[in-house]
Specification:
The protein is α/β, with parallel strands linked by helices. It folds into two domains: 145 residues, Nitrogenase molybdenum iron protein domain (Rossmann fold), CATH 3.40.50.1980; 120 residues, Nitrogenase molybdenum iron protein domain (Rossmann fold, 3-Layer(aba) Sandwich), CATH 3.40.50. Helices cover 45% and strands 17% of the residues. The chain has twelve helices and 13 strands. A five-stranded parallel beta sheet has the order 3-2-1-6-7, with helices on both faces. The protein has a four-stranded parallel beta sheet with strand order 10-8-12-13, covered by helices on one side. A two-stranded antiparallel ribbon has the order 4-5. It is elongated, with a radius of gyration of 21 Å.
């Protein structure tokens, strides 16, 4: 038996069988995307704030954001399955929902590989085990293809920049760090003490990044002014800056690979610039 089918069968036994959920509420944006990826989008009746894809999920009733769930709104929707974000949804919220008699399951995604496992689990919980296995298989194949494609690329020292005054960056526990590693980028601030922390210009000078990566939500004029004050570093040249869709890059669903691929392509463009 293939790994995916075996895992789905185990989950089905653990979860008491694949009973199709007809009214699903998700407590974080990526959970709605996972539900839709296993072909149960039509069963969504409530989603968290900032759920923006796919359109069918984005159109559903909002039940608060990932960290502040409106319990009354959830109960009013009469769900037969609530999907919580393991590590995001406050544990007291999960416990309260369960005490209210709502079937509430926490879905954990920490790394890129975990998305496939989450697809299989959501498939079983939602009564769509076969669709979950199929979605997980497609995801694993694409992730493996990206890893093969970008293995052996020349390493680049990368500063993932958030804002400018002060600038922040991310450490090795951020999902963006794993994406950088896959694409052949070395996160120059991997050892920061917090997931995201401020970095001084002196620290940036000492790190000597070859590339700056920032979200498209950042003001390009402010980014330009920041680097104009650091003329001795490569990212002072706009050709050494990569703009990414941080929403896709941090979304713990199959869409994360769209963000990873775009990041890898951006770093490849910098490599070409360096080689000239």
């Amino acid at each position: 038996m293939r790994h995916g089918a075996w895992w789905a069968a185990v989950l089905a036994l653990v979860c008491g069988g694949a009973v199709a959920a007809e009214r699903i509420v998700t407590l974080a944006p990526h959970l709605a995307e996972l539900v839709c990826a296993v072909e149960r989008c039509a069963q969504l009746v409530g989603v968290a704030a900032y759920t923006d894809a796919p359109p069918q999920a984005a159109a559903q009733v909002r039940i608060g954001d990932a960290f502040n769930v409106n319990l009354e709104a959830v109960v009013a929707l009469r769900p037969d399955l609530v999907l919580a974000w393991d590590g995001g949804t406050p544990q007291p919220t999960v416990e309260r929902l369960r005490r209210l008699g709502l079937r509430t399951e926490a879905i954990a995604v920490r790394r890129l590989d975990d998305v496939a496992v989450a697809l299989e689990r959501v498939g079983v919980l939602a009564g769509a085990a076969d669709a979950g296995v199929a979605a997980a298989t497609r995801y694993r194949q694409r992730l493996q293809a990206l890893r093969r494609q970008y293995a052996g690329r020349a390493r680049l020292r990368v500063f993932y920049q958030i804002e400018t005054d002060p600038a922040y960056s991310i450490n090795r526990h951020s999902p963006i760090h794993e994406a950088l590693e896959l694409c052949g980028g070395d996160n120059v601030f991997a050892d920061l003490p917090a997931l995201a922390a401020p970095v001084s210009r002196e620290a940036v000078l000492a790190a000597r990044p070859q590339v700056v990566v920032h979200a498209q939500q950042e003001d390009p004029a402010q980014i330009g002014r920041y680097w104009a004050r650091l003329p001795g570093l490569a990212p002072a040249d706009p050709a050494h800056r990569v703009v990414v869709d941080a929403n896709a890059l941090t979304r713990q669903s199959p869409r994360v690979l769209d963000g990873v691929q775009a990041l890898c392509e951006g770093l490849d463009r910098v490599r070409l610039s360096v080689a000239r």
